[in-house]
Amino acid sequence: MVDLLSPTFLTAVLAAGIVAGIPLLFASLGETLAEQAGVLNVGLEGMMISGAFVAFVTALAVGDYWIGLLAGGIAGAVVSLVMVVFCIRLGLDQIVVGIALVLTAEGATSVLHDIWYSRSYPRLPNVEPFRIPLLSEIPVLGGSLFSQPLVVYVALAGVAFAAWAIRRTRWGLELRAAGERPDSLDAAGVSVVRTRTVAELMCGFLAGVGGGYLALVGAGTFVPFVTHGAGFIAIVIAMLARGRPWWCVLGGLLFGISLSITTALQVAGIAIPVDFVEMLPFISVLVVLVLFVRESRLPSALGLPYLRGSR
Amino acid sequence: MTGSNDRIGSSTVGVSTPAVELSGITKAFPGVIANDRISLRALRGEVLCLLGENGAGKSTLMSILSGLYQPDAGSIRIDGREVRIGSPRDGRELGIGMVYQHLSLIPTLTVLENLMLGSNPGIVLDEVRARARLGDLAARLGVHVDADVRVGALSLGQQQHVEIIKALWKDSTVLILDEPTSMLTPQGIEELQKVLLGLKASGLAIIFITHKLHEAIAIGDRVVALRQGRVVGELGPEVLRTGTPHEIQGRIVEVMFGEDPTRGPQIAELREDLAAERSDARTRLEGSPEILRLDGVAAPGARGQHGIEGATFVVREGEVLGVAGVDGNGQRALAEAIAGQRRSSVGTIHLGGEEVTNLSVGARQRLGLRYVTDDRLHEGVVGRYAVGLNFVLKRIGDEPFWRKGTIDRKAIETTARSLITEFDVRTPSPATPIGKLSGGNIQKALLARELSFDPRVVVFHKPTHGLDVKTIAAVRDRIRALAARGVGVIVISTDLDELIDLSDRVAVLFAGRIVGVVENGPQAATRIGELLVGGEAAA
Amino acid sequence: MSEAAGRTAVNPRRADGLIGRIGLALGPILLAFLTTAVLLAILGRDPVAFYRDILLAGVLRPSGLQDSITRMAPVLLVGAGLIVSFRASLWNLGADGQYLLAVAFVAGVGSRVIGDLPPVLGWVVLAVAAMLIAGAWTFVPALLKARYGLNEIVTTLMMSFIGIAIANVLIKGPLKGDEMVPQTFVYPEGTMLWDLPGTTIHVGVVAALVVVVLVHLVLTRTSLGTRLDVLGANPRAAVHMGIDVPRLIVVAFFLSGALIGLAAASDIMGIFGYVRADWDPGYGLKVVPLVFLAGLNVIAFIPIAAFFGVLSIGGDYATRKADLPSDFILVFIGLLFLFMIVTQYVSARRARGEPVLPAWFRRTLPARDATEGDGG
Questions:
Q1: How far is Cα B19 from Cα B173, in angstroms, rounded to an integer?
Q2: Which residue spans within B284-345 are E strands per DSSP?
Q3: 376-415 of B, contacting C, C-beta below 8 A
Q4: Residues from chain C contacting residue A179 (CB–CB below 8 Å)
Q5: Could you tell me how many CB contacts below 8 A there are between chain B and chain C?
Q6: What is the CATH number of the domain that holds A29?
Q7: Is residue A311 situated within a structural domain?
Q8: Are residue B164 and residue B177 in the same domain, yes or no?
Q9: What is the CATH number of the domain that holds B503?
Q10: I want to staple A306 with a disulfide (CB 3.0 to 4.6 A). Which of A182, B464, C107, C236 is the partner?
């Protein structure tokens, strides 16, 4: 039996929690942008799994996980293009299109995986953590917070940038207006469709990167349905974050740690059924959702298409 | 158009060149010609008032001027130069500032953010510059505006100032005010006059759109009357500045309706017989038993709107109680609390002596309480359902329309046919989806549903909002007839004239509280205005 | 998450007339077949052979045909369950969790007790229990929706993942049989649902058809059906009309779950007789597009369920023969879904007499749809 409060144990839990939480951070950050602009992405899971698959294929071929992540992001953006055309441009139901995206993306990646890899099951090498000098020497935190793959710090920088951009740039202002009162934005001479399109593509890109991270750094390989509902959890986190990117960090971390604790307990010799481990993130997210149900507020025009001249 | 033909063709920009000149503007929509060869001009330093009923083509014309629509024919000159306005952005670049009919500000954003939206030059928001510009323009208007308050927290008057500032942001030469609000009290009109006076002096051309005679007279230097898409007359300053308001009013009606004096009386403002009717009613109400009583009722608001607090009042049988107030001050909460759609957390509601505070919507309906909602299309009816089915949607499962839980379409159709006749609902058949009817006919269908089956108290929420003149008259007649039958009536409206027209007493709602109740009479409008302003000052 | 403002109605616009409706359903199916054929060709498979195999294994072989008809039962019931909630604009996307929890019970507990119960009564008791369990699994999302307006899409999905995991925990633990592999006991000889004489089609299929017709009558003829439709058209209108919306939400969700639970009972007692851990047919999301294809009409859904039966039985064989994973069928259904949305969009525009192409595609033409008093 391992001492549960030993620094090594805590370090492991925190480090694993961050690894598990980063995909959620990316995806929920993307969903935050889209929701602020008035688009609800039920298809987020589909963007993530497409990103995961393409990132894996690319990283395997090129041998560089940065390029892999980039490719994953592009794949996610391509999938989100369907949302752009059907929902933002044509004004079709965002939920229905979202479900269709999830089905198609899950099916397609599973089929391609089966065709290409079901006999070899290739794996990627582990990603080297980037140890921040000095900080990584701090007990517990140093080995977890400050010894992560470089992309983790990039993600946090991205969150800081998004938080600033939403509040302080013209683009962020237009984003919020598009989700709140698209007709007012239109009257102000800014294209609602373009604003939402940009937000949606960024959402797809971020979800794709999140999925790519899940495959490349988290799992080291791609298996069908590897995202296992992470996209839906990311939607919940974005709903609770209400346009505040730093809350996505919190949500991602909560999810990641609830996963890593159970894993760590198993390692520590405490028998927990694997199904229970899979269930815990959903329970914790659901509990948080219930606790903060009064807090959550979504943009007024979320989920509603905007077509000028129709009311 | 009459007069000033000598100026046409002048090419030099000067005082005499109109800031805006429209000639022969025509715009057709499927089935209707919204603008038919309209020509008019707006001069610098002058308020041009565009007067006409709903549907006369005013808003279409201004949408063309602001670049939202393209005309089918005709030309637009700005400062003597012919221009093509392809988009609202083009319009702004040409110096046309527009204040829309429905406020276009975003309530969840701050004043400054609203002003920067669509006007910030760089990628990063330049708050310093915007703040300075706001200060300049506010000074020009002679008002004070707090830059960092969320717009939703401002009073309507303040929001209107922000709207005007937004319209002037890019050094506009023309300011268009499209029916700025229907709740312009006498005091509000006075204040707007003051603001516009300053703007006129700085050389702006102002176009003010309204369907109300008295606003046109009070604010306009020139009045152009539109009817059915055409200019039917124009009155210059020489007319508007001589004679009593009553005489001017007469002149305008003459211009608008020509030799057809029967049309005039459809405008409620001109119905002098109503005052007499009201005083009759008051004597009738003496000793009439109370039918609805609210005691200290509180109910929460939704979506940034006010709830209500401490609402206490009585409605008697046969009485019309008006509720005045600016939109979003708790009207919806009040109406829904009475109807039971929103649970009141505090206080009691009695209907004819029986407490209904904890009864459901359905139970209150069965006791004779009716609610005619303002959101006809999305709350009042189910658009894709037949007119007939919509008539019985408040009685789902009840005999005779449902027998042992199973629908009886025959019974529904029979009832529907008789209601359609009685309430003059123009529909191809009872089976037509109600969403395909015009707004006026949907409202008639709603009245048919709510006013049949023995109502005892009816709450009307903006009963004539967005309707055409004839339907407005029909709806108001129904309301008067209802009260005459002894039903208790509450009319919640943002249209002050409507309240003066219909009510026996008017309660004023401000920030979720009833700040006073005014007996209807000669000075009622002014008194209501005071309460609205007083309420604003108290907040 | 108080309700995403004024949610668009779920119900797709229904085309006029039977022909129009059939066209609306067939068009997307044909388009999906064509696109899938192109994909197959890209993957180096012979599309013609693939579709021939589907037809062969799903219809032409007597055993295949009977399997296809048998497969209709769960699809019909799950579909009817989804239709009940979707008509009320309630997105019950948690069918998989509801189904598997009922499966775990009917297989795990049912296989132990069925031998001690009189034949028909035992089936009824287990079926009712399955309905109650699956129905009860909707309570959390239903109550959160009814009480706080919490978006049910995410909550039903969360509850589904949790339900699937719990079902697996149960099958591997308390409900495990005495085999080495994690699976339940098997129904004893002679305790399964009877087959129709001379076939391998069990009576559960007939029961499913009867239930589905009953559901149709409830939805179209009764006051409950009207209430569900009003709620689906607009929750605010439902409140205004005096409908007890919170109660109706709970009822609709429960009925939806109960029908899905009945599908589980029919599958276990009619076909499998036991369940293995980690087994998940994933009906939930796959059936969603199909019920929309039927315009949320239960009767119109019957032929579509038959189509799906053929597709999945024949598809199993065809994918195996073409050396593709069975998930290939997901791609087909996803495409079917997308094409269906586009087809309905186009036909709705045409029905309104609007040009088929949207405004942004025709920038040069003047704006339309404008009326007086329209500020924006």
A1: 7
A2: 290-299, 308-316, 320-324
A3: 378-385, 389, 393-394, 396-397, 402, 405-407
A4: none
A5: 107
A6: 1.10.3470
A7: no
A8: no
A9: 3.40.50.300
A10: A182
